[in-house]
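Quick question: what would this complex look like in 3D?
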Amino acid sequence: MEYSMIIDGKPVKAEHHFDVKNPANGEVVATCPGATEAQLNDAVAAARRAFPAWSNSSDETRKQCVQGLADVLANNMQELAQLITLEQGRPLDGLGFGSFAEVGGAEYWCRATSELSLEVEVAEETDEHRAEIHRKPLGVVASITPWNFPLMIAIWHIMPALRSGNTVVIKPSSLTPLATLKFVELAQSVLPAGVLNIVTGEGGLGRMITSHPGIDKIVFTGSTGTGKNIMRNAADNLKRLTLELGGNDAAIVLGDVKPKDVAMNIFISAFINNGQTCAALKRLYVHEDIYEEMCQELTAIAKTMTVGNGMDDGMQLGPVQNLEQLNLVMELVDDAKEKGATILCGGERPEGNGFFYPPTLVADISDGTRLVDEEPFGPALPIVKFSDVEEVLARANNNPNGLGGSVWSNNVDAAIALAKRLECGSAWINNHASLSPNVPFGGVKESGIGVEFGRHGLEEYTSIQSVFVPKQ
Ligand code: NDP
């Protein structure tokens, strides 16, 4: 199957193509166009031409369009979910959040975003004037998405941009472009030409986008290293930025918790999408009184997991999405083994073509080991023992990342007090990684800049104009 880009409402082919491969077996799923610089320029020009009419369309028109896009997702759920599984690997009904759930979640986010609006605020009222705060769209927004939740994250970027009156050029990860290409093609039945464009390509295209003078804002989800590059390259025309970057979320489980009560929730929070989730639970700190029991409960769950091709019935976990990521996970686990950690389960790559790796739990490990200090972004979880709450809080915070964090305890007030001292953008109690389209989500420290979702997320696609209305 050969895919086309969509520029100015029309399918566009390219001279060069690249293959998209199924991580479960290495088979080529489709070929995609590699955009030239001229084609990127065409996409930006189309978005710029579409901007005046789109930004001046009524709020109700844009709301209806975003709802129409939610219908597009709902009406094409089967095809989109299958594309996600074929390109990303996650099972259709996988653990916690399969490919069907990704399309359903994308639809849900669309509908919630359609209901958001940015009312005019009054900043000051004097005898002379009323100072109003108006929110104006920025212009052309470029979205650059990663390979872990390809469609969901595209929707997180596109919908607030369109809802607030911007036009969009999206570039999906070259590893997982298919569901996004299909969605943008389908979206043309709802949107005016040029409002939503898609370009695809391998290395280099992202850099061309971030330094393009015709783009006003970049919204990016991916690695911290790439986020830093984007920030540097975006400086020439002071592009606005929302950067949702890596995380190494800590969870602190206090000694009053019964491991059996929380083990499944903790396991899902860590292994959702095979651990390839920015806000997954990645460092599990467990009080010494319940450490052994927690290790046993989690191991028992891990051993029940079915790992295989996501298109097969009954699979809970699929392959790691790409070999580079799998190699990183194996490197971190092997390093932990060498440092004397105990592998409770998993820890060996099975024979075969796919990038499979079993859910791996690593005990008797502490900070200062790579698997604890670095983000594995894959199916390996370190379980770290602690005895003192103040000390574990300091260890949890002693990391350059600051995306999410959680505290688990039957004493909810004490857990809230502790969670508020975690250096992270989202804090959960007896839970981890639950997100809502109404609640701002973003990282502190090196986990990002800005937030997504809700009114605060929508505001990031606008600039403020203060209007001084004189009193007659
Ligand atoms: P990257 O950050 O490298 O890639 C994400 C997106 O950015 C892709 O679309 C990629 O395009 C694009 N890109 C790459 N380089 C540039 C650049 N210089 N300028 C602009 N865009 C660029 O992530 P990877 O996919 O390589 O994953 C690496 C690590 O990132 C993982 O190990 C994980 O830690 C983290 N990650 C975090 C995610 C999150 O949700 N926070 C999601 C995915 C990864 P292309 O690949 O097509 O060249």
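Answer marked as accepted. The mean pLDDT is 97.
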